[in-house]
Every structure is written in C-alpha cells, then in structure tokens.
Amino acid sequence: MDVVKLDSIDRRILHALQRDGRLQNVELARAAGLSPSSCLRRVKLLEARGVIKRYVAVLDGAKVGAGLSLFARVWFKAQDADTTNHFIASVRDMAEVVECHIMAGECDALLRIVTQDLASYRKFHAEQLTRIASVQSVKTEVPMETVKLTHALPL
C-alpha cells in the first residue's frame, strides 16, 4: 500500500475532520483556509484515495450498556494459516470484539473486548471466546483507568 503524500492543507482538513467528522463544508473550508468548492474537491479526493475511509459516530459505551473494556491475550493451538484464519473468521462475527490484532511475540492475538460488566464478559469468555476451536488459552487484562483513548491519527 502506497503512502499518500499530504500537503499542509490536506493535513488541516484531516485534523479538523478527526476532531469533528460532522463539520459542514463551509466550516471545514474556513478551518483549512480554502474556498468551499476547493475544500469539497480536496475532501472528495482524500476519500477517493482511501485516506478517509469512512465517517462514524463515537459512542459513550457506559451510556449504551457497553462501558467495560478489557484486553484479552489469546494463544492458538497451532501456528498454521488455517488455525489463524479460523480464529479471524470467528472473532469477526463477535460484536463484543472491537479490535483484533494478530501478534508477533508472546501471544498470537490481542483483542479489545467491550461488554456491560464483568459478569457479561465472563459469559462471553465462557460461551464464545474460549469455544473457538483454534484457541488454546486466553489471559484477560482488566484496565483500572483509561488515561487516553483517541481515534485521531498523528499527522
């Protein structure tokens, strides 16, 4: 995948959109120092080039019954492609798994899991996560405090 060259105007547009994806084009143009038509053209180009993948609403998990984030380190029964692919296909269908990273290092996968509380995580762990055929073991890490959580990339 090629890195897209961004100039300072593109970066201003992206910074503004990462702060507020609902900015009206006129406001975005003002923030970027462009006319509205030039700004819209640049945004469309950033979308077409895949720099802007999509727009989403960031929810407050506690207010929608998904306020507990946990991290699970997962070890597979084997290291072959079939085992890894089976695991990936399984977790893609699990709404509680909001991030899945296949790892190099001690564990095979690192998951960020969001649930309502520890009881709901225990049920998810017992009834879904550990029942994936390719999973050998799971170690759960419970964060005590979230100090920083952002979706904004450094530009």
Task: Using the alpha-carbon principal axes, give the shape.
Answer: elongated
Based on DSSP secondary structure assignment, what is the total number of beta strands? 4
Beta-strand percent range: 15-25%
What is the N-to-C order of secondary-structure elements (H for helix, E for strand)? HHHEHEEHE
Distance between the termini: 18 Å
Strand order of the largest sheet: 2-3-1-4
Coarse structural class:
alpha+beta
The number of helical runs is 5
Look at the structure and give the mean pLDDT. 96
Largest sheet: 4 strands, antiparallel
Using only C-alpha atoms, the radius of gyration works out to 20 Å
Query: Low-confidence parts, pLDDT < 50 over ≥5 residues?
Result: none
Helical residues, percent: 25-40%
Domain HTH asnC-type: 6-69
Protein name: AsnC family transcriptional regulator
Pfam family, one: AsnC_trans_reg
Keywords: DNA-binding, Transcription, Transcription regulation
Question: Could you characterize what this model shows?
Answer:
Keywords: DNA-binding, Transcription, Transcription regulation. This is AsnC family transcriptional regulator. It comes from Vogesella fluminis. With 155 residues, the chain is α+β, with helices and mostly antiparallel strands. The chain is built from 5 helices and 4 strands; from the N terminus they run αααβαββαβ. It has helices at residues 8-19, 25-32, 36-48, 81-92, 118-127, and strands spanning 68-76, 97-102, 109-115, 135-141. It has a 4-stranded antiparallel β-sheet with strand order 2-3-1-4. The longest helix has 13 residues, at 36-48. It is elongated and about 55 Å long.
